[in-house]
Every structure is written in structure tokens, then in C-alpha cells.
Amino acid sequence: MKRPLLALTLLFGVATAQIGEPSTQLVKSLSTLNPAETAEGFRADGVRFTTKNRSGLLYSVSGTATLNPQGQRALAQLVGAATGYGAGIAGPVAEFLGSRVAELAGQGEVGLAVEEFVLTLNVTGDAAPYGVQFGLELPVVPAESFPPSRHLLGPKDARVVIREFSDFQCPYCAEYATGILPELKRTLLARGDVRFEYHHLPLTSIHANAQLAAEAAECVVAANTPKDFWGYHDALFARQRAWANLADVQPYFVRLAQEIGLSNDGMAACLTQGRYTREVREAFQVATQELGLNSTPSVFVGGYRVPAGAAGTLAGYERAIARLEAFTE
């Protein structure tokens, strides 16, 4: 598959994805298209599609469509329903199909990122109306593709792994650290079969002090113990507004360790010499280039990315874990 041509994203909105729910819900949500059941699956307004289930839950949707205006709208509505984003994503999909379909003809299978989902398209024909073979699924990242993490909460052999890719200067990450993470500790991590991992993803193009903050957290570990990362992690996020815009932030980071009762021996030298600069930059490269991440916090349950809205609620994690267990073969 070629790399995605375009990423369709929403600035606002929370998905209630039909993928991961009983497949009957998808057909019900398409009532305005009046889908008719066929021997192979369903058809509606120039779109034919079939569903694939795992453990009784919708795993993927695939089919064919005629890309006239009616077919474009129907396919876009199907994508909106199956992802759970509804009209919020159906509109951009319909616009994309209407404006870009001609250039896709004859290119073979291409991938389109639709929030955390992938829509594959194989457009055929020499002129409009074009035809298309499509598939929609929630991609899974193999466990070996994730970088190892030095910062863990929970057992190393946990059945479920939650991975957060975070930026210490990101205000949304601060909300996550002070809001949802404590709730995860009290509930899911208390079960004994869930592990939480922290991964560095400093977005230096918009957060000038994020790289040094990540390095400071590593220097704190070097001066103390691995578990002390979490105390410094909490302090960085709790006091984010105090240091985020400092022109010379290094003295603050050194002083902060002492203020929360940790040793800061060697921290100044550690930061000045950039002992962890390469490590943090490599973490950024893996997250952005190999995993395709460009925002924080980015959260995965197992190999499945959790949409931003769901990642901010305990119920979102419970649904993600249930889906992970159902999809794991």
C-alpha cells in the first residue's frame, strides 16, 4: 500500500465508532440510505459493501462503489457511520472523492488516513463516473514496532499495554497527566493486568522548551532512581505554566528536582552536555516517522490508537480494552 495521500481529521467531535460494536448497529445507522441485504452483503445508492466480524464485533468494511455524486455521498456516509464520526467526517470524505478521484484512477491501492482509521481506495476507469474498490479498518501497530519505554507503571508482563506519546509543554498533555492518568492508576492499573508506558514526543516546532524538559526528566532519573521519573513528570505538568515560556529554562528544571525532594546532583552538567539529547530526538523520530504521530497526547491501547475524545475518559479505555480483546486472534 502507498503512503496515505491525505489525512482527514476533525478539530472537534468525539467518535462512537461502529467498528468495534455489533455490526447490526452499522446497518441501523445507515437507515437514510435504506440499505438492502444481498447474498454478498448490502447495497445502497451505488455502494455495495460487506462487513467482517471478530468475536461478534464489526472489524472492517469493504466493497465497491460507483463514484457519481450519489455514490460519493453514499460512500462518504458509510465511512462516517463506520468510524462513528458521522457527518463530521462524511463531509470531508465526500469532498475528497469529488475533487481528487480523477487523479487516483489507475494508481492502484492507496491509503487515506481518516482520524485513527485507514480507508483504502482502488479507483478504476478512464473517465467519470469512476468505480472504486474500498476497505475501511482500524489499523493495528505490531507490538515490536513500538519503541521500548524506560518509564512504566504496572507489570512488565501485563496483558494490556497503554502507551502515551507525550510532550511536557503540551497543555493537553498536562490535562491528561493531572486528569485521566490518576483515574487510570486508581482503576485499570489497580487491576494488576494493565501496564502504562510514557514515551517522549516533544513537538519542538511549537513548544520551544519541550525537548529540554524531556532531557531534564531523564537527567532526574540518572541522579535518582527510575521510579522518581513519575514524581518529576507530575511536577513538570503541574507547574507547566511557570516554565513553558522561560527564555532560559535550565535553572528552573534543576531547581524543580530539589523542590520536590529529589537529588539534582549532576543535573546541570547533564543538561549542558546534552547527555540525553540524542535519546529524546530518536524517540521523536520513531514516533513521527515510523508511527506517523504528529500530535500529543497520542495514546494506544495495545496496537490500536485511541481517538482523542475516548482517551480522555475511563469509559473510552474500557471500550478500547474490550475491542482489543475481541480483535486479538
Give the DSSP E fraction (strand runs of 2 or more residues): 15-25%
| Helix/strand/pairing category | alpha+beta
Number of helices: 12
Superfamily at the CATH H level of the largest domain?
Glutaredoxin
Number of strands: 13
CATH fold-level label of the largest domain: Glutaredoxin
* Poorly predicted residue ranges: none
Distance between the termini: 23 Å
Helix and strand sequence: EHEEEEHHEEEEEHEHHHHHHEEHH
Q: Which strand order do you get reading across the main beta sheet?
A: 1-6-7-8-5-4-3-2
Give a short account of the largest sheet. Answer: 8 strands, mixed
Radius of gyration from the alpha-carbon trace, in angstroms: 23 Å
Q: For this structure, what is the CATH class of the largest domain?
A: Alpha Beta
What share of the residues lie within helices?
40-55%
Mean pLDDT: 93
Q: From the 3D coordinates, which CATH architecture of the largest domain would you assign?
A: 3-Layer(aba) Sandwich
Write up what this structure looks like.
This protein is an alpha+beta fold and 329 residues long. The chain folds into two domains: 131 residues, no CATH class; 184 residues, 3-Layer(aba) Sandwich (Glutaredoxin). 40% of the residues lie in helices and 21% in strands. It has twelve helices and 13 strands. The strands form two sheets. An eight-stranded mixed beta sheet has the order 1-6-7-8-5-4-3-2, with helices on one face. The protein is elongated, with a radius of gyration of 23 Å. The two termini are 23 Å apart. The model has no long low-confidence stretch (mean pLDDT 93).
